[in-house]
Design a protein that fits this description.
Helices cover 8% and strands 36% of the residues. It has a 14-stranded parallel sheet, covered by helices on one side. Strands 4-7-10-13-16-20-24-28-32-35-38-40 form a twelve-stranded parallel sheet. It is elongated. The termini are far apart.
Length: 425
C-alpha cells in the first residue's frame, strides 16, 4: 500500500509537470511575431502592406518603413499596423476606394486592431473606415484629401458600398466608425476631406468610443465630428443607435463652410423615425469658425431618441447659423433642435463668444444650461420652441444679468435665468 500511494503521488507530479511543459510550449509558439514592410521589399520584408497583413497571424505587429504605398489596405484580423512616422509613411489611395479598411463586417468578432503612424490620403471614399469591430485604436495619423469621388452637384459618391445608408455631402468622411464599440480615435489630423470624423450606426450600434485630441479642420462639405444615427444597412430592422460616446479635447474648426448648412463643429443628428443618439458627452473641445453652430443637435422627426447628451467645458466661437428646419437667426454657438424631445440635455461650463446667439433651444423639452460664460453680447439664450430652458446660474457678460448694459439677453418664452452669476464661472 505504501508503494502504491507513493507511485500514485509520483504519477500525479509527473502528470502536472508534463502539463506545465505543454502549456509553456504552447505559449512559446503563440508569441506574436513582428513583420516588416518597405517599398522595395528588402531585408526579408514585404513590399506591400496588404501582403504583410495577409501573411500575419493574429496579434502580430507589422512595422512599415517610410515611403509611399499605393494601396487600399483591408485588415480583418487582430494586429498592430505601425508606420514609421505619419510625416513620411504614406498610404496613397489615389483611384482606390479607401485608404485603410478595418473590416469587421466580413470578419465577425474582429477586435484589437491598432493603426498608428501613417498619412492616409486621396481615397475616392474614406481615408480610414472601421465596421463592426471592438477595441480598435487609431492614433497619430494624418488623414488628408479623401472623399475624392464626391459629386457635390448631386451629393452622390460613385462606388460607395451598399451599407453606407445616408451620407449626403460626404463619402463617409476622413475617418468613419460604423458598428464600432470601445475604441479610441486619438491624436489624428483629419483635414481637407469632405467631413472629418463620423460615428454612425449603419451596420451596428456605435457606442462607448473615445474621440480625443484630434485636429479636425477645413473639411468643407460636412461637420468636423458627426454622431449620426442612420437607417440600418438592411433597411428592414430598427436603427441600432449611437450612444455613450465621448468627444473630448478635439479642435474642430473651419468645417462645413462650402455648402450652406453643411457642417457644425460637432453634430448630433437623428434622421428617420426610430434613430437614436443618447448619452453622448461633448467635452473640452475647441469649436470655431464652422459653417453651422459649434454644436448642432438635430431631431428631424417624431419617434426619435435624442436624450441625455451633455455639452461641457467647450470653447465655442465664430460659428455659423443653423439652417432649414433647425433654423436659428445666428451665428450660433449651440443649437438644440428637436421634433422629438431632446430631454436630459445638459449644457454647462462652456465659453461661448463671437456669436449672435450663444445657445438656441427649439425642442418640446426642458434644456438645462448652467455655469456657462455667455459672451456673444447678443442673445445669450434664445428659446424658439414650445419647450423651456433652465438658464439659471450663467454669466451673461456683466454682473447685471440678462438685458443689463453690456450683457447678453434672454429671448423667447420659457427661459428661466434668475439667479445669474455676478462673475464669470
Amino acid at each position: 500500500m505504501l508503494w502504491s500511494k507513493s507511485s500514485n503521488r509520483f504519477d500525479r507530479i509527473r502528470f502536472l509537470c508534463l502539463n506545465t511543459m505543454l502549456v509553456i510550449a504552447i505559449c512559446q509558439t503563440a508569441v506574436a511575431a513582428t513583420l516588416c514592410v518597405n517599398p522595395r521589399g528588402k531585408s526579408g520584408c514585404f513590399s506591400k502592406i496588404q501582403d504583410a497583413v495577409n501573411a500575419a497571424a493574429a496579434y502580430d505587429t507589422i512595422n512599415v518603413a517610410q515611403g509611399k504605398y499605393k494601396e487600399d489596405v483591408v485588415v480583418g484580423k487582430p494586429l498592430s499596423l505601425v508606420g514609421h512616422n505619419s510625416s513620411n509613411t504614406v498610404i496613397d489611395a489615389t483611384g482606390l476606394l479607401n485608404g485603410l479598411y478595418i473590416d469587421g463586417l466580413d470578419n465577425p468578432g474582429l477586435a484589437s486592431v491598432v493603426v498608428t503612424g501613417f498619412t492616409v490620403k486621396n481615397a475616392n471614399l474614406e481615408g480610414i473606415v472601421i465596421t463592426n469591430a471592438s477595441n480598435v485604436t487609431v492614433s497619430y495619423n494624418q488623414v488628408l484629401n479623401n472623399n475624392r469621388s464626391l459629386d457635390i452637384n448631386d451629393a452622390t459618391c460613385p462606388g460607395a458600398p451598399p451599407w453606407e445608408t445616408l451620407e449626403g455631402f460626404d463619402c463617409g468622411e476622413g475617418i468613419h466608425l460604423s458598428g464600432v464599440d470601445h475604441s479610441v480615435v486619438a491624436n489624428n489630423t483629419s483635414q481637407y476631406n469632405a467631413g472629418g470624423i463620423l460615428l454612425s450606426d449603419d451596420t451596428g450600434p456605435t457606442h462607448d468610443n473615445l474621440i480625443s485630441n484630434n485636429i479636425v479642420t477645413d473639411n468643407p462639405y460636412d461637420c468636423g465630428i458627426t454622431l449620426a444615427s442612420h437607417p440600418s444597412a438592411t433597411m428592414s430592422g430598427a436603427p441600432f443607435g449611437v450612444f455613450h460616446n465621448t468627444i473630448s479635447g478635439n479642435t474642430s474648426s473651419g468645417n462645413g463652410t462650402q455648402v450652406p448648412g453643411a457642417g457644425a463643429g460637432v453634430g448630433i443628428f437623428d434622421s428617420i423615425p426610430g434613430t437614436m443618439n443618447y448619452g453622448n458627452v461633448i467635452i473640452n473641445n475647441r469649436l470655431t469658425n464652422n459653417g453651422l453652430p459649434g454644436v448642432a443637435m438635430h431631431s428631424h422627426a417624431p419617434g426619435q431618441t435624442i436624450t441625455d447628451n451633455m455639452i461641457i467645458g467647450n470653447y465655442i466661437a465664430g460659428n455659423g447659423a443653423d439652417t432649414d428646419d433647425a433654423f436659428t437667426p445666428g451665428p450660433t454657438g449651440i443649437n438644440v433642435f428637436g421634433v422629438s424631445p431632446a430631454s436630459g440635455t445638459v449644457i454647462t461650463n462652456n465659453v461661448i463668444k463671437d456669436e449672435s446667439v450663444d445657445i438656441a433651444v427649439n425642442s418640446p423639452a426642458i434644456v438645462d444650461a448652467h455655469l456657462n460664460n455667455l459672451l456673444g453680447k447678443g442673445m445669450g439664450v434664445l428659446n424658439l420652441g414650445l419647450g423651456s430652458a433652465d438658464a439659471t446660474e450663467n454669466w451673461w457678460g456683466c454682473s447685471g444679468g440678462p438685458g443689463a448694459n453690456g450683457c447678453a439677453t434672454a429671448a423667447g418664452s420659457g427661459v428661466t435665468f434668475s439667479p445669474w452669476l455676478t462673475t464669470p464661472f
